Amino acid sequence: MKMHYLKHWICLFQILAFIAGISGCKESSRHYAEIAENDVMSMMNEVEKATLAKDLNGVIKHMAPFVVINITMASDNSTLMQQRVQISRDQYEDELRKFFAKRSYHDYRIENAAITISEHRRSAIAEADILETIVMDEKETRTTTHQKSVLEIIDGKILVTSIDAIIVSGE
Amino acid sequence: MNIKGQMSERFYRREFAIAGIFVILLIFVSGCSKSVPKCDDGKTVKAVINTVSEDFKKDLAAVAGMGAPGMELTDDEWRTIRAGMVIDLEEIREQSFDEAADKRICAANLMVVSGGAKELIPVTFVTERNRDSGEVKITLSGLDEFRESAYEEMPLPE
User: Fold this and answer.
1) Which 3 state secondary structure label does DSSP give A103?
2) Is the ipTM reported for this complex over the cut 0.95?
3) Is there a single domain that holds both residue A24 and residue A43?
């Protein structure tokens, strides 16, 4: 009789240990309660590395599924009106996939980064100028984009919930 | 019924009575607490949509008012325009809740569908209750920034 109970307890313990193991693996990514400037900086660095390494998931994983992305081509002397387009995360992922497949050279630098953490520390605004040199189909393009991103804690993760990118110069 | 059966019946009756008292207490407690409505509460959402609608009306009235006298936006005209628009909130989330101040900071994507075009505007809104009057005040932000970026002044041709 005692052996019978012991078997049950061992079995139950093994199940519990297995569940604990799974949840332990799940929790390997940090669960955030607040946003610090360092968290935003490290995310920006991760995105930079992922972009240069053509790591699509490394870029996309930082975006909330409902992120709102606005891309604006600033007006120049030839065009009077600025062109603005709004895209979703899925559309951005598609465009980035095509871009990664086509590009032969990419230099990506972040300059003038400024981070503002909200009073309640559960959201932040990151602004920066992104200087890029891209070679695609043997054609070189240099652009400077002013990017403003809003980051929030969603289910314990720091995710980008909106991006406003203004391409201020391109040649 | 044997004694064992009577005992267990009594036991279950007592348990049931205790559970009932707890449920009644819970109803009373939740009914008495008057914390500011949640971010996705129907009243909050309606109030935000009303604020956005009023802002759009003011914008349109200002544009119409720039024309010749008598070109002002009438209420009937506004009602027709508004009927053709869809204004809603998507992905509503709470950023913080200050229990002491009875204040919630919320974020959402404001969806505006007009003339077949859909636009999402990331907004934040603060809901707070006036302790004296009990009224809920909603402060919306993000709409002005959107207007500035979307309708940036065009450079004049030389």
Assistant:
1) strand
2) no
3) no
A103-117 and B103-114 beta bridge pairing: unpaired
Q: What is the pLDDT of residue B146?
A: 72
Residues A45, A21, single domain; the answer is no
Type of residue numbered A39: D
Q: Based on C-alpha coordinates, what's the Rg of chain A?
A: 22
Tell me the sheet residues that pair with A86.
A70
* Residues A114, A152 within the same domain: yes
Q: What is the domain extent for residue A156?
A: 37-170
Does the pLDDT at position A6 exceed 70? no
Higher-confidence residue of A21 and A42: namely A42
Question: Looking at beta carbons, which residues of chain B come within 8 Å of A68?
Answer: 109, 120-122
**A18 vs B71, residue with greater confidence:** B71
CA-wise closest residue to A166 among A108, A100, A82: A82
Compute CA distances B136 → A166, B41, B42, whole Å. Answer: 37, 12, 13
Residue pointed to by tokens 């064992």? B4
**Residue A25 and residue A41 in one domain:** no
Which of A86, A153, A159, A163 to mutate: most B Cβ within 10 Å? A86
Mean pLDDT of chain A: 87
Residues in A touching B154 (Cβ below 8 Å): 75, 80-81
CA distance A85 to A69: 8
Is the CA virtual torsion B126, A123, B94, B150 positive or negative?
Answer: positive
Residues 8-47 of B with CB under 8 A from A: none
The pLDDT score that the predictor gives to residue A125 is 97
As a whole number of angstroms, the distance between CA B156 and CA B158 comes to 6
pLDDT tens digit sequence for B46-63: 999 999 999 988 888 888
CB atoms within 10 A of CB B52: 21
- What is the pTM for the complete model shown? 0.77
Q: Are residues A64 and A117 in the same domain?
A: yes
The verdict on A152 and A120 lying in the same domain is yes
The conformation of residue A76, written as its DSSP 8-state character, comes to -
